[in-house]
Write a structure and sequence with these properties.
Blueprint: H1 26-44, E1 51-56, E2 59-65, H2 68-71, H3 78-89, H4 95-98, H5 100-107, E3 110-116, H6 120-129, E4 133-138, H7 152-155, E5 172-175, H8 179-192, H9 202-216
Parallel strand pairs: 3-4, 4-5
Antiparallel strand pairs: 1-2, 1-3
Helix pairs in contact: 1-8
Organism: Chloropicon roscoffensis
Domain CMP/dCMP-type deaminase: 26-148
Pfam families: dCMP_cyt_deam_1
Amino acid sequence: MAPATTAPHREDPPATTSSEDSLFTDRERGFMRLALAEAEEAYEVGEIPVGCVLVRRGEVIGKGQNRTNETRNGTRHCEMEAIDGVLIGFSQNSEERQSREAMARFWDEVDLYVTCEPCIMCAGALALMGVRTVYYGCSNDKFGGCGSVHTVSADGCGKCGGGDGSPALGFDCRKGLFAGEAITLLQNFYIKGNTRAPKPHRKHLWRDRRLEQAERDGEGGGDRGDGLVE
């Protein structure tokens, strides 16, 4: 009888509370745990494990997880998913749909809890919507829009507000809530490899162009010994 096989082990995020986590209230930690649950679901289906929840007046009004692999759309970050979910929920006759001021008042009472610092794109969208506060776990050193790369959170996104041309203002940020858990999820994901990511074609595209050029030049293609044609 063949030995039983076991599924690859995923190291679960630590359950301990760090000194930084203790700076937050039980309620804030509770909402971030919901965001972590979204990130864990994303991990299980092969998405980059980042998740979030939108909270207004103490209640979760929206949630999201990355869907960039599933949709083959690099803009479908969890923040965009959550915002779109809330906007779709408004009826056409709602006060928020009918009035720019009512929509602004609505989002001014909304806080975001997200496991990783929003990228510049998402920070711009959050500034445009007018959210009140963003709580995030780990920093985003490559694309962060809350200070790691760009200070969209402090500066807003200029006049991207459109309409009346008024600038979209920034928002408050609090970082470090369950950062360790967020980092562990991301590390586990990248150790395993992003198996659902589209395969890059640029290398093959340039190889094919070089082969075509060699054939036109009568060289016959092939490996020239310099590694340019593989």
